[in-house]
């Protein structure tokens, strides 16, 4: 069975729910204590004798501790990052256009993330700040919320409150 050598220590690996030979890997340099991380998407060859190849890699300014594939879009991937953020990547876009969104909902390292298998437009994160945070990915236009039922809600700007940012998907 072929091996793939990551440049940093591995923290998480997840199979794509859409493609049987595609995996995402979260890594962190220096065991996550200092420095950088990387999110990699790898292609496992259907032939066991063939090497594992890297499809794309995204460098992060802090360690990447977990990854989760979107359950509704085959090209979307979220990563839990050591700086307290969660990055949303779109593999359909060039690497220089990623991440397409960075959610800053935690005050310490984000340790894990997972997409909801039932409500497929949302995921949840857990952090070293002792919180878990559900995030719904929806359309966001001009600081007005538009959820899937068409209700609009202005985003309130208050200190010490959590707000969920949304992303507009434009897949063609």
From TrEMBL:
Its main location: cytoplasm. It comes from the Eukaryota. SUPFAM superfamilies: WD40 repeat-like (SSF50978). GO terms for biological process: protein import into peroxisome matrix. It is found in: Cytoplasm, Cytosol; Peroxisome matrix. Transmembrane segments: none annotated. InterPro entries: PEX7 (IPR044536), WD40/YVTN_repeat-like_dom_sf (IPR015943), WD40_repeat_dom_sf (IPR036322), WD40_rpt (IPR001680). One of its GO terms (molecular function) is peroxisome matrix targeting signal-2 binding. Gene3D superfamilies: YVTN repeat-like/Quinoprotein amine dehydrogenase. One of its GO terms (cellular component) is cytosol. Keywords: Cytoplasm, Peroxisome, Protein transport, Transport. Belongs to the WD repeat peroxin-7 family. This is Peroxin-7. It comes from Acacia crassicarpa (northern wattle).
